[in-house]
From TrEMBL:
This is ABC transporter ATP-binding protein. PANTHER family: HEMIN IMPORT ATP-BINDING PROTEIN HMUV. SMART domains: AAA. Pfam families: ABC_tran. It comes from Zhongshania aquimaris.
Amino acid sequence: MLAATDLVIDIPERKSGTPLSFDVKAGEIWGILGPNGAGKTTLLHTLAGLKKPRAGSVNLNNHNIQDLRRKQVAQQLAVVFQNNGEGFPATVLETAMIGRHPFIAPWDIETADDLAIARQALQKLELSNLESRLVSTLSGGERQRLAIATALSQSPKLWLADEPSNHLDLKHQVQIMGLLAEQADTGCGVILCLHDLNLAAHWCDKILLLYPNGEACWGDANAMLTVPALERLYDQKLSMISSEGQTYFMPISSRT
Ligand SMILES: Nc1ncnc2c1ncn2[C@@H]1O[C@H](COP(=O)(O)OP(=O)(O)OP(=O)(O)O)[C@@H](O)[C@H]1O
Protein backbone atom coordinates (compact mmCIF):
# COMPACT_ATOMS: atom_id res chain seq x y z
CA MET A 1 0.00 0.00 0.00
CA LEU A 2 2.60 2.51 1.16
CA ALA A 3 6.27 1.86 0.53
CA ALA A 4 9.22 3.91 1.68
CA THR A 5 12.39 3.31 -0.33
CA ASP A 6 15.73 4.64 0.93
CA LEU A 7 13.70 7.47 2.46
CA VAL A 8 15.53 10.25 4.26
CA ILE A 9 13.30 12.79 5.97
CA ASP A 10 14.31 16.42 5.75
CA ILE A 11 15.00 17.96 9.13
CA PRO A 12 16.97 21.21 8.73
CA GLU A 13 20.54 21.13 10.03
CA ARG A 14 20.31 17.45 10.92
CA LYS A 15 22.39 14.63 9.46
CA SER A 16 20.51 12.24 7.19
CA GLY A 17 20.69 9.14 9.42
CA THR A 18 19.38 5.71 8.46
CA PRO A 19 17.56 5.59 5.09
CA LEU A 20 14.14 4.03 5.69
CA SER A 21 12.86 1.20 3.51
CA PHE A 22 9.66 -0.50 4.56
CA ASP A 23 6.30 -1.52 3.18
CA VAL A 24 3.05 -0.93 5.04
CA LYS A 25 0.68 -3.69 3.98
CA ALA A 26 -3.11 -3.86 4.15
CA GLY A 27 -4.22 -4.93 7.60
CA GLU A 28 -1.05 -3.81 9.40
CA ILE A 29 -0.79 -1.29 12.22
CA TRP A 30 2.58 0.46 12.40
CA GLY A 31 3.69 2.50 15.40
CA ILE A 32 6.40 5.17 15.08
CA LEU A 33 8.10 5.73 18.43
CA GLY A 34 10.76 8.18 19.47
CA PRO A 35 11.48 10.98 21.92
CA ASN A 36 10.33 14.58 21.43
CA GLY A 37 11.93 16.11 18.38
CA ALA A 38 13.11 12.79 16.92
CA GLY A 39 11.20 13.45 13.70
CA LYS A 40 8.02 11.35 14.04
CA THR A 41 5.70 14.07 12.73
CA THR A 42 8.16 14.94 9.97
CA LEU A 43 8.22 11.27 8.94
CA LEU A 44 4.41 11.02 9.04
CA HIS A 45 4.04 14.15 6.90
CA THR A 46 6.67 12.84 4.48
CA LEU A 47 4.80 9.53 4.20
CA ALA A 48 1.59 11.50 3.56
CA GLY A 49 3.28 13.42 0.73
CA LEU A 50 2.87 16.71 2.60
CA LYS A 51 6.61 17.17 2.93
CA LYS A 52 9.28 16.38 0.35
CA PRO A 53 11.93 13.89 1.45
CA ARG A 54 15.60 14.84 1.44
CA ALA A 55 16.25 11.60 -0.48
CA GLY A 56 14.45 8.43 -1.51
CA SER A 57 10.76 8.05 -2.22
CA VAL A 58 7.32 7.21 -0.88
CA ASN A 59 5.08 5.14 -3.13
CA LEU A 60 1.34 5.02 -2.61
CA ASN A 61 -0.07 1.98 -4.39
CA ASN A 62 2.93 1.93 -6.73
CA HIS A 63 2.86 5.66 -7.59
CA ASN A 64 5.38 8.13 -6.26
CA ILE A 65 3.26 10.19 -3.87
CA GLN A 66 5.00 13.40 -4.96
CA ASP A 67 3.71 12.84 -8.52
CA LEU A 68 0.06 12.40 -7.48
CA ARG A 69 -2.42 15.25 -7.25
CA ARG A 70 -3.45 16.04 -3.68
CA LYS A 71 -7.03 14.99 -4.43
CA GLN A 72 -5.85 11.56 -5.67
CA VAL A 73 -3.87 11.15 -2.46
CA ALA A 74 -6.82 12.25 -0.32
CA GLN A 75 -9.06 9.67 -1.99
CA GLN A 76 -6.79 6.97 -0.56
CA LEU A 77 -5.16 8.35 2.54
CA ALA A 78 -6.33 10.32 5.60
CA VAL A 79 -4.11 12.24 8.00
CA VAL A 80 -5.03 12.97 11.61
CA PHE A 81 -2.83 15.88 12.67
CA GLN A 82 -1.31 16.33 16.11
CA ASN A 83 -2.88 19.71 16.75
CA ASN A 84 -6.43 20.36 15.69
CA GLY A 85 -6.37 24.09 16.26
CA GLU A 86 -8.85 26.71 15.23
CA GLY A 87 -9.62 26.86 11.53
CA PHE A 88 -12.55 28.63 9.92
CA PRO A 89 -15.59 28.91 12.17
CA ALA A 90 -17.49 25.69 11.41
CA THR A 91 -19.88 23.30 13.06
CA VAL A 92 -19.05 19.72 13.99
CA LEU A 93 -21.08 18.36 11.06
CA GLU A 94 -19.53 20.81 8.57
CA THR A 95 -16.09 19.72 9.76
CA ALA A 96 -16.87 16.00 9.43
CA MET A 97 -18.14 16.73 5.89
CA ILE A 98 -14.63 17.95 4.95
CA GLY A 99 -13.75 14.26 4.81
CA ARG A 100 -16.05 13.91 1.79
CA HIS A 101 -14.43 16.73 -0.23
CA PRO A 102 -11.92 14.50 -2.09
CA PHE A 103 -14.90 12.70 -3.63
CA ILE A 104 -16.89 15.78 -4.67
CA ALA A 105 -16.26 17.29 -8.12
CA PRO A 106 -15.50 21.03 -8.30
CA TRP A 107 -18.73 23.09 -8.23
CA ASP A 108 -20.74 20.05 -7.03
CA ILE A 109 -22.26 19.95 -3.59
CA GLU A 110 -22.38 17.15 -1.03
CA THR A 111 -24.97 14.45 -1.71
CA ALA A 112 -27.32 12.80 0.76
CA ASP A 113 -24.86 9.86 0.81
CA ASP A 114 -22.01 12.18 1.81
CA LEU A 115 -24.14 13.56 4.61
CA ALA A 116 -25.06 10.05 5.76
CA ILE A 117 -21.38 8.95 5.80
CA ALA A 118 -20.37 12.02 7.84
CA ARG A 119 -23.26 11.46 10.28
CA GLN A 120 -22.30 7.78 10.65
CA ALA A 121 -18.73 8.81 11.46
CA LEU A 122 -19.96 11.29 14.09
CA GLN A 123 -22.16 8.59 15.58
CA LYS A 124 -19.22 6.16 15.74
CA LEU A 125 -17.21 8.76 17.64
CA GLU A 126 -20.16 9.62 19.95
CA LEU A 127 -20.44 13.16 18.60
CA SER A 128 -23.92 13.06 17.05
CA ASN A 129 -25.42 15.18 19.80
CA LEU A 130 -22.84 17.91 19.09
CA GLU A 131 -23.30 18.12 15.31
CA SER A 132 -24.60 21.70 15.33
CA ARG A 133 -22.02 23.00 17.80
CA LEU A 134 -19.17 25.26 16.71
CA VAL A 135 -15.84 23.43 16.80
CA SER A 136 -14.37 26.30 18.85
CA THR A 137 -16.65 25.31 21.74
CA LEU A 138 -15.46 21.66 21.89
CA SER A 139 -13.23 20.23 24.58
CA GLY A 140 -9.78 18.91 23.65
CA GLY A 141 -10.96 15.29 23.64
CA GLU A 142 -14.11 16.10 21.63
CA ARG A 143 -11.96 17.96 19.10
CA GLN A 144 -9.64 14.97 18.82
CA ARG A 145 -12.58 12.61 18.26
CA LEU A 146 -13.89 15.01 15.61
CA ALA A 147 -10.53 14.89 13.81
CA ILE A 148 -10.83 11.10 13.76
CA ALA A 149 -14.48 11.27 12.65
CA THR A 150 -13.44 13.58 9.78
CA ALA A 151 -10.78 11.06 8.72
CA LEU A 152 -13.36 8.26 9.00
CA SER A 153 -15.74 10.23 6.73
CA GLN A 154 -12.95 10.15 4.16
CA SER A 155 -13.21 6.30 4.03
CA PRO A 156 -9.43 6.02 3.66
CA LYS A 157 -7.54 2.85 2.75
CA LEU A 158 -4.59 4.21 4.67
CA TRP A 159 -4.62 6.04 8.01
CA LEU A 160 -1.76 8.26 9.17
CA ALA A 161 -2.44 9.53 12.67
CA ASP A 162 -0.18 11.67 14.81
CA GLU A 163 -0.78 10.86 18.48
CA PRO A 164 -4.40 9.74 17.96
CA SER A 165 -4.85 9.23 21.72
CA ASN A 166 -3.98 12.90 22.47
CA HIS A 167 -6.46 14.49 24.91
CA LEU A 168 -8.48 11.29 25.23
CA ASP A 169 -9.58 9.68 28.49
CA LEU A 170 -8.89 5.98 29.01
CA LYS A 171 -12.20 4.77 27.62
CA HIS A 172 -11.87 6.88 24.49
CA GLN A 173 -8.22 5.85 24.03
CA VAL A 174 -9.31 2.22 23.93
CA GLN A 175 -12.25 3.10 21.69
CA ILE A 176 -10.05 4.95 19.17
CA MET A 177 -7.39 2.25 19.11
CA GLY A 178 -10.20 -0.30 18.68
CA LEU A 179 -11.60 1.72 15.77
CA LEU A 180 -8.17 1.85 14.10
CA ALA A 181 -7.76 -1.91 14.64
CA GLU A 182 -11.21 -2.42 13.11
CA GLN A 183 -10.05 -0.36 10.11
CA ALA A 184 -6.96 -2.57 9.80
CA ASP A 185 -9.15 -5.68 10.02
CA THR A 186 -11.16 -4.43 7.04
CA GLY A 187 -7.94 -4.14 4.99
CA CYS A 188 -6.67 -0.63 5.75
CA GLY A 189 -3.06 0.18 6.51
CA VAL A 190 -2.57 2.22 9.70
CA ILE A 191 0.48 4.27 10.70
CA LEU A 192 0.55 5.96 14.09
CA CYS A 193 2.98 8.22 15.91
CA LEU A 194 2.73 7.22 19.55
CA HIS A 195 4.22 8.21 22.88
CA ASP A 196 2.34 5.59 24.86
CA LEU A 197 4.43 2.41 24.84
CA ASN A 198 1.58 0.38 26.27
CA LEU A 199 -0.77 1.34 23.44
CA ALA A 200 2.04 0.48 21.01
CA ALA A 201 2.64 -2.90 22.68
CA HIS A 202 -1.05 -3.74 22.71
CA TRP A 203 -2.15 -2.59 19.25
CA CYS A 204 0.78 -2.39 16.84
CA ASP A 205 2.01 -5.21 14.57
CA LYS A 206 5.12 -3.33 13.47
CA ILE A 207 7.22 -0.72 15.19
CA LEU A 208 9.67 1.85 13.87
CA LEU A 209 12.07 3.34 16.42
CA LEU A 210 13.34 6.79 15.47
CA TYR A 211 16.33 8.20 17.35
CA PRO A 212 17.10 11.93 17.58
CA ASN A 213 20.35 11.44 15.62
CA GLY A 214 18.37 10.06 12.66
CA GLU A 215 19.23 6.44 13.39
CA ALA A 216 16.22 4.14 12.94
CA CYS A 217 15.22 0.49 13.04
CA TRP A 218 11.95 -1.26 12.40
CA GLY A 219 10.38 -4.71 12.52
CA ASP A 220 7.82 -6.88 14.30
CA ALA A 221 6.50 -5.21 17.47
CA ASN A 222 7.62 -7.97 19.85
CA ALA A 223 11.17 -7.85 18.48
CA MET A 224 11.39 -4.04 18.70
CA LEU A 225 9.74 -3.42 22.07
CA THR A 226 12.52 -4.56 24.37
CA VAL A 227 13.69 -2.78 27.51
CA PRO A 228 17.28 -2.15 26.30
CA ALA A 229 16.09 -0.71 22.96
CA LEU A 230 13.45 1.51 24.58
CA GLU A 231 15.76 2.69 27.38
CA ARG A 232 18.26 3.78 24.74
CA LEU A 233 15.50 5.38 22.65
CA TYR A 234 14.11 7.49 25.49
CA ASP A 235 17.26 7.77 27.63
CA GLN A 236 15.07 6.62 30.49
CA LYS A 237 15.18 3.56 32.76
CA LEU A 238 12.17 1.30 32.28
CA SER A 239 10.72 -1.82 33.76
CA MET A 240 8.62 -4.32 31.85
CA ILE A 241 5.69 -6.06 33.49
CA SER A 242 3.70 -8.95 32.06
CA SER A 243 0.14 -9.49 33.14
CA GLU A 244 -2.57 -11.67 31.61
CA GLY A 245 -0.54 -12.12 28.43
CA GLN A 246 0.01 -8.37 28.03
CA THR A 247 3.27 -6.44 28.23
CA TYR A 248 3.45 -3.11 30.05
CA PHE A 249 6.32 -0.64 30.26
CA MET A 250 6.78 1.68 33.23
CA PRO A 251 9.37 4.43 33.63
CA ILE A 252 11.47 3.96 36.77
CA SER A 253 11.74 7.17 38.76
CA SER A 254 14.01 7.87 41.71
CA ARG A 255 11.06 8.69 44.02
CA THR A 256 10.31 5.74 46.28
N1 LIG B 1 10.97 24.36 9.78
C1 LIG B 1 11.84 23.86 10.65
N2 LIG B 1 13.05 24.41 10.82
C2 LIG B 1 13.95 23.90 11.70
N3 LIG B 1 13.70 22.80 12.45
C3 LIG B 1 12.50 22.23 12.31
C4 LIG B 1 11.51 22.70 11.42
N4 LIG B 1 10.41 21.90 11.52
C5 LIG B 1 10.72 20.97 12.44
N5 LIG B 1 11.97 21.17 12.92
C6 LIG B 1 12.65 20.36 13.94
O1 LIG B 1 12.64 19.03 13.48
C7 LIG B 1 12.68 18.16 14.60
C8 LIG B 1 11.64 17.05 14.42
O2 LIG B 1 10.34 17.59 14.63
P1 LIG B 1 9.07 16.64 14.68
O3 LIG B 1 7.88 17.50 14.95
O4 LIG B 1 9.06 15.79 13.47
O5 LIG B 1 9.41 15.74 15.95
P2 LIG B 1 8.51 14.70 16.76
O6 LIG B 1 9.33 13.46 16.92
O7 LIG B 1 7.19 14.55 16.12
O8 LIG B 1 8.38 15.43 18.16
P3 LIG B 1 7.23 15.42 19.31
O9 LIG B 1 7.30 14.08 19.97
O10 LIG B 1 7.69 16.52 20.22
O11 LIG B 1 5.91 15.71 18.66
C9 LIG B 1 12.46 19.01 15.84
O12 LIG B 1 13.72 19.19 16.49
C10 LIG B 1 11.93 20.33 15.27
O13 LIG B 1 12.32 21.43 16.08
